[in-house]
Amino acid sequence: MPDSKSARAAKSVPSRGQQRADGSTFRSKDEVEVGRRMEALKASKIMMVDDEPTTIEVLATFLEGEGYENIVTSTDSREAVDLLRKHLPDCVLLDLMMPNVDGLQILRAIRSDATLQHTPVIILTSSTDAETKLKALQHEATDFLGKPVDPSELALRLRNILAAKAYQDHLINYDGLTGLPNRRLFLDRVDRILRRASVESIPCSVLHLGLDRFKQINDALGHRAGDILLKAVARRLERSIRPSDLLAIPGLNEAGSPLCRLGGDEFLVILCGSPSADSTRTIARRIFSNLSQPFRISDEELIVTASIGISLFPEDAEDIEALLGHAATALSHAKQAGGNQIAFYSRALNTESSKRLLMENQLRKAIGREELLLYYQPKFDTYSGDLRGAEALMRWNHPEQGLVPPVDFIPLAEETGLIESLGEWALATACHQNVAWQNAGFEPISISVNVSSKQMRRGNFVQTVRFALSDSGMAADHLILEVTESMLIEDQAKTLDMLNELKAMGVKISVDDFGTGYSSLSYLKSLPLDELKVDRSFVSGVSEGSDDSAIVNAIIAMSQSLGLIVVAEGVETAAQLRFLQNRGCDQYQGFLRGRPVPPSEWGDILKRSTGGD
Ligand code: C2E
Ligand code: CA
Ligand code: CA
C-alpha cells in the first residue's frame, strides 16, 4: 500500500547531541563547530523505499532516535519516483528486490532525471550476488548496506554521505568568497517565488546592485583588498534587508537569503511582498546608507558607492528572465548617469515620481559637486538697529534649474535621509564662514543654523556639532541652533538630553517658527532654551487690534517670563517694526533691512554694522 509517512517528522525524538549536552565535558571550538554541522545534517530529508513494512519501521524508528526529523517512506515502489520528485530528498535508502518496479529501475530513473540526478542513493540488499552489485554501481549507486541492516553502520554511512552532499550542495549553490547564494541558487529561488507570486498576486521587486568603479579599486589596492571589500559589502547588504521588509509568506521568505552574488561586484536582491516602488526605494536607500560608511581595508579608509537598478513584478515583467534583464538595464542607466544612484526600469512609474527620483539622485551629488550654497540673512537689534547675527539659509545651485529654494529640496532631503549630510555640511560651512569673518577683523557675530528634526534624530548629532566647532575653531557661544517646536515635542526625554548636552558645550538653542506648534509653557520652561523666533505668518499680520497682534504680544510676554530672547521673522514694513519696538521684541529679521544674501555681499553688511576694516 502507498505509505508516505512524512508525518513522522512531527514526532520529536531528542537527538544524541542534545542528550549529550550535559555540560560536564569540555568541548573545543572545533568540536563544537563539527557538532553544529552534524546537528544541521539531522534536518536532511531522507527517503526510504522498501516493500517490507517491518524493515521500514525498524530503520525509521532508529533514525528518528538518532535525531533525523525528516523521513519519508514508501512501501510501494510504483509510486517511488513520483514521491522522489515531490520530496527531493537529500538521500535515498533503496531496497533492490521489490515487486513491480525493482530498485535498479528506480535508480536508473533517478540518474536520468535532471533534478534528482545527483541525489545520493544507498542500496539496501540482502543479495550477495556480485552481478547485482555491479549493476547498481554502473547506475551510480552511492553506497551499499547489507540486509539485515546494522543500525550503527547505517547511521555512520548516512552521516558521511549527507556531509559530503552538504559540502557539495554548498559548493554548487554558494559563492565561495562571500558565502552568499550564487546565481544558480538564487534563480531557483526567484523562480519558485515568482510562480507563487503570480498565483497569489504578490508584488515583488528585483534589485540589481553594482559597485561604482570597483575595477579601479581592485587595480589600485590589489585583488586581495578587492576580495575583502566584496565580503564586507555582502555583510552590509545582509544587514540592509530586515525581516520586516519581507512579507511573511509561509515557505517563501523564510527559506534562505534574498541575496545573491552574481559575480564580480554585482549583487541581486529579491524582495517579495514589498508592495510598492516606494517601499523598494526605501530599502534601496537603506542599502546606500549602509554602504556609504567608509570601509576599513588593509589600513585604508575606503569610500564606496554603488548603483542600483530595480524592476518590479508584475508591472515590468512577469517572467524571471525579463525581470532580471530589466533590472540590469536599469542598473546600466544608473551607471551611465554617473553612478551612486537608484534607477527604476519603469514604464509603470509616473513621471512625477521619476522626476523626484532624478532630483534625489542629483541632490545626493550636490555636496560633492559644490552645488550647495549658504546665504546669510542679517538679524538686527530692534532698538539700536545693530547687527546681532546671521542666519544661514541653504540654496541649491541646480545645474539646470538654477537657484532652488530650500522648500523645494529640504523635504526631499529629510525623506531620503540626505538631510544628515546636508545638515552636517551647512553646520560646518556656517562655522567656517563665521570664523573667516572674525579673522578678517570684523566684530564677532553669532551664526544661526537651521536643524531639521530628522537630522537631530539620526546619527550622532551632538558629535557633529562638536566637530564643526573644533574643526572651525569657532567659540560655541557664537552658534545658535534653530530647532522647530515639533521637534521639541517628539521624543521629549531624548530631546532634553541632547539639548542639555549642547547647552553644556555652550551652544545656544532657538525655537524656530514659534507659534505654529503646540508646545506648552510648562514644557518649554523645562528646556534649556535661549531664543524664540516668532513665525513670519504672525508678524505679517500685525496691526493694532488684529488676532495676530494678540498672538505676537503673548509670545513676547511669554519669552520675557522665560528669560528668552525673542526674535521676529519676516519683518517687511516699517509699521511692523514699530509694532515690535512698542511691544519689547528684542531682535528682528526681514526683507525690510536685509534679505538672505551670499557671503560675497556680507563684507559690506559687516563693514556698515560693525566698522571692521
Ligand atoms: P526659516 O528657518 O523660517 O527661514 C526663514 C525663511 O523666511 C527664509 O526662507 C527666508 O528667506 C525667509 N524670509 C526672511 N525674511 C523674510 C521676509 O521679510 N519676508 C518673506 N516673505 N520671507 C522672508 P528660505 O531661505 O526659503 O528658507 C525656508 C526654510 O527652509 C527655512 O525657514 C528653514 O526651515 C529651511 N532651511 C533653510 N536652510 C536650511 C538648512 O540649512 N537646514 C535646514 N534643516 N533647513 C533649512
Ligand atoms: Ca530658521
Ligand atoms: Ca522660521
Secondary-structure map:
Layout: H1 16-20, H2 29-41, E1 45-49, H3 53-65, E2 70-74, H4 80-87, E3 91-95, H5 103-111, E4 121-125, H6 130-138, E5 143-146, H7 151-173, H8 183-200, E6 204-211, H9 214-221, H10 223-240, E7 259-263, E8 266-272, H11 277-292, E9 295-297, E10 300-302, E11 306-313, H12 320-336, E12 342-344, H13 351-366, E13 372-381, E14 387-398, E15 402-404, H14 410-416, H15 419-439, E16 446-450, H16 453-457, H17 461-472, E17 479-484, H18 485-489, H19 492-505, E18 508-514, H20 521-525, E19 531-534, H21 536-539, H22 547-562, E20 565-568, H23 574-583, E21 587-588, H24 602-610
Parallel strand pairs: 1-2, 1-3, 3-4, 4-5, 11-12, 14-16, 16-17, 17-18, 18-19, 19-20, 20-21
Antiparallel strand pairs: 6-8, 6-11, 7-8, 9-10, 13-14, 13-21, 14-15
This protein binds ligand C2E and calcium ion (CA) (2 copies).
What does this structure look like?
This protein has 613 residues and is of the alpha/beta class. The protein has 24 helices and 21 strands. The strands form four sheets. An eight-stranded mixed beta barrel has the order 13-14-16-17-18-19-20-21, surrounded by four helices. The longest helix has 23 residues. The chain starts with 15 loop residues before the first helix and ends with a helix. The structure holds ligand C2E and calcium ion (2 copies). One calcium ion binds next to loops.
Helical content stands at: 40-55%
Morphology call: elongated
In whole angstroms, the N-to-C terminal distance is: 105 Å
Q: State the strand order across the main sheet.
A: 13-14-16-17-18-19-20-21
Mean of residue pLDDT values: 87
Beta strand count: 21
- Approximate strand percentage: 15-25%
Low-confidence sequence ranges: 1-24
Classification by helices and strands: alpha/beta
Count of alpha and pi helical runs: 24
Radius of gyration: 35 Å
Q: Main β-sheet, in a few words?
A: 8 strands, mixed, barrel
Ligands bound to this protein structure: ligand C2E, calcium ion
